């Protein structure tokens, strides 16, 4: 898929670009308001990652421009401003999602995947990964057409892993994804472990490959192509 | 004690004292003058007797006068000393008045007589009494006038002071409202008013600066935190790490997460205090708490905490975002300060939400738990959770209280 990263902070822009490029996506970047405008005028993207505060202008205006010209690009706002007004303003104007800085790249990837899924497979809610198929609407998981019982969190975690397949996802990122960033019980992530153990067990017992690997004690990786 | 009470007390006591002292002096002076008068008239009478005796060589005839009596009695030679005395004046048989007398002596034809001249003092005393009554009445009247005047005038005079005081009491640094000017012609109060207004403007200005600074600093801080976080995410993709390296990376992750949460909490506090989150929604608390408990069940299970929830339906109106944070903070607080195998009891009635948890065997410091950055030694939180909860409660006009009764630490929120 083709992404446009509009972000003026070089370090962050590079990280995002690298994270998405490695997963086989095409990424273009814009560091200023005017650069962003000329890119969106010329090309179309599957998803645009849009920072609000930019040199030379406000990201919200870029969003307005996209919507005024009826561009179909998905838009994910990434901003350090997390006031409710900013969120609502962005979403009201037609952004698909809003992510507050700082975020984990895996969270960003999951959000982008969700937007693209909604855009690309319009109507279809089926997500397949090799022998695993997931019905996003009904929230069911099946392997080789055999339906599995997943809890809400296990389901969310599996989707998260698939969106970040091939990437090491940190335990912090998983905890924040599942429990929200309001929960700062960072001293103990044992409960993540039990969720992952359950997912692996259910998938393997149903005849799927064991895709989830522990990665150097700091996180997990959903391996496989 | 009120200023007016103290003032009245001092005023009345001094007035009475001064009046009494002057009254006594006045009385003494008048008495002295009148007695001197009486003595002079007695002396005139004595002189008349002496003159009469010198001329006639015999004692004058004693006659009844209306207010003067003279009597002569023979006495041993030279036994009488001349003196003025206070005595009684027999008006009628059984009517006695106070009187002033002069005892003197005279020798007539070789015979020694004691002379006693007595004058009635009734009129003098009447005069003194009248003067005294008038004076006393004057004192009473004066006191009464003073009291009433103090009550009325002072109360009115102090009106601006009370108005200014009320304004100052109502003053809230986070409000956008200025304190209103109180009209007054009295210089002192006008000064006070000016000083108060200037002070509040200065305080507001400083507060605003600080607030802007906090917000800006917070926003600026978020960007590098975001960079660090994303770089860490990128770094862990790269290669295999040994245990030591992964431990370091984990610590970095935790520190960054903590930093970002701290930053968010600070920003949130600024926003709540400035009432920047004002969206109103009707929220079913029971539903919200049920959802949260479901969301956190792994955390409870991990710490082997038993959660008992007795929830009645209760709807409140406020910002959903804030109420979620409030409940989240309180529940997480109950988990964090619990011990493995502990207990959390949540009671929701239409009047209050009570969250009880087991934990340390001693009460927390009630005065400090709601202050910023106060946390117990074991706590790994930011020390802002309860402060934020308290602030949210305040913004919703709820009260949040803490109490400890063994073995439960109880936070209670009254709607």
UniProtKB/TrEMBL annotation, chain A:
Protein keywords: DNA-binding, Phosphoprotein, Transcription, Transcription regulation, Two-component regulatory system
Gene Ontology BP term (one): regulation of DNA-templated transcription
Span of domain OmpR/PhoB-type: 124-224
GO CC terms, sorted: cytosol; protein-DNA complex
Single Gene Ontology MF annotation: transcription cis-regulatory region binding
Residues of the Response regulatory domain: 2-116
Protein name in the entry: Response regulator transcription factor
Lineage: Bacteria, Pseudomonadati, Bacteroidota, Sphingobacteriia, Sphingobacteriales
TrEMBL record, chain B:
Domain of life the protein comes from: Bacteria
Keyword annotations: Kinase, Membrane, Phosphoprotein, Transferase, Transmembrane, Transmembrane helix
Catalytic activity: ATP + protein L-histidine = ADP + protein N-phospho-L-histidine
Name of the featured protein: histidine kinase
Coiled coil start-end: none
EC numbers: 2.7.13.3
InterPro entries for this protein: HATPase_C_sf (IPR036890), HATPase_dom (IPR003594), His_kinase_dom (IPR005467), HisK_dim/P_dom (IPR003661), HisK_dim/P_sf (IPR036097), TCS_sensor_his_kinase (IPR050428)
Histidine kinase domain span: 216-415
